[in-house]
Design brief:
Elements lengths: L12 E6 L3 E5 L5 H7 L17 E6 L2 E3 L9 H6 L2 E3 L3 E3 L3 E4 L12 E14 L2 E8 L10 E6 L4 E6 L9 E7 L5 H8 L6 E8 L11 E7 L3 H14 L5 E7 L8 H10 L3 E7 L11 E2 L2 H8 L6 E6 L2 H12 L9 E2 L5
Parallel strand pairs: 1-7, 14-15, 14-18, 15-16, 16-17, 18-19
Antiparallel strand pairs: 1-2, 3-5, 3-7, 4-6, 8-9, 8-13, 9-12, 10-11, 10-13
Helix pairs in contact: 6-7
Length: 344
């Protein structure tokens, strides 16, 4: 069966949302966030994996069990209060109530659980791999969204963004970077092989490509943040082949770059794409045209005023924060036209 139905076993519990009084059913093993989004209730969230704290709410009645007891999205003060929970980490066993104000409207795509298998695992450089998964049926998602990988051996959930466009073949592509000491990425690098099963939940994410404006598009990617940015770039180039699109892709050194052939092919086919490679450290191995500096600073120099642009950002938290300071805090960009999902 695909997607996986979370209601196949166990008792359904109910969550009351205050102050609205709306009632939400949670199947066995389903988080409050997943149940709400699947029901069309758009609860606040960003990372959906316990790190950012955007889905923190007050537990008014009852109790929940956390998937990750030490999730950094709850502060020590939150833990001392004892009534703060993360919706993305909370499993409901008995009826309870939470205090939360959902966003207006409904999620554009409702998450589900998916069984997939590894079709290909290809190294892009010493620390980055291109992972291709295949589901039995088409998986709906928006360019820029991500999936939660449910990893075995007590590793838990990890969020990775799709690098491709949704299609009827059920194929999902990811660009994954190895992080020192990272249990999730170490498992994907060292233990995963072609044909292995991988369970996913999603899609999640709010930084999807918007189609409600006519602004030029600026894309900023740091490292493996290129995955969602590349998905957005492909969709934007297909949707608006004449619309100006500027891509800034940053890495530390030339040896850390990847996906250059795909970027060059797209640039040859789509003249509207302006690709800027930015390296912190320059060397003789730099590709032609590569620029030196911090990718956010280079973008800031090029784009004095971004009020007529849509900005999409993906990368380390420090990079995202620096762009928000340079553009939103100074009035150089509209806050409602800057899109990113915060991961810590």
């Amino acid at each position: 069966m695909n997607p996986i139905d979370p209601a196949v076993a166990g008792r359904t519990a109910f969550v009351r949302l205050e102050p609205s009084g709306a009632r939400l059913s949670c199947a066995a093993g389903q988080t409050v966030l997943a149940a709400a989004l699947a029901a069309g209730i758009d609860l606040p969230y960003e990372c959906a994996s316990g790190s950012c704290g955007s889905c923190r709410v007050r537990l008014v009645e009852g109790s929940v069990s956390p998937l990750w007891a030490g999730a950094p999205g709850l502060s020590e003060r939150d833990r001392r209060k004892g009534d703060r929970i993360l919706c993305c980490q909370s499993i409901v066993h008995d009826d309870c109530a939470i205090q939360v104000q959902p966003h207006a409207g409904t999620p554009p795509v409702r998450p589900a659980r998916w069984r997939t298998r590894v079709r290909e695992l290809r190294p892009l450089n010493r620390n980055v791999v291109h992972l291709v998964l295949e589901a039995e049926h088409a998986v709906d998602f928006l360019p820029g969204q991500f999936m939660l990988f449910e990893l075995p051996h007590g590793i838990g959930r990890r969020a990775y963004s799709m690098a491709n466009l949704p299609g009827v073949d059920g194929q999902l592509e990811f660009i994954i970077k190895r992080k020192p000491g990272g249990l999730g990425c170490n498992y994907l690098f060292d233990a995963l092989h072609a044909g292995d099963a991988v369970h996913l939940e999603g899609p999640y994410g709010r930084a999807w490509l918007r189609e409600d404006g006519a602004n030029d598009i600026v894309l900023l990617a740091g490292g493996s943040g290129l995955a969602p940015i590349w998905s957005i770039a492909q969709a934007a180039l297909r949707r608006w082949p004449q619309r100006r699109l500027r891509l800034y892709f940053g890495a530390n050194r030339a040896e850390d770059l990847f996906w250059l052939e795909e970027i060059e092919q797209a640039r040859r086919v789509m003249p509207a794409l302006e690709a800027n490679l930015v390296l912190v450290q320059s060397s003789a191995a730099d590709p032609p045209g590569a620029r030196t500096g911090l990718v956010g600073a280079v973008m800031s120099q090029d784009i004095g005023n971004a009020l007529s642009n849509d900005l999409y950002l993906a990368g380390p938290p420090g990079l995202i924060d620096s762009v928000l300071r340079d553009f939103v805090a100074t009035g150089r960009a509209r806050a409602d036209r800057v899109f990113f999902d915060r991961f810590l």
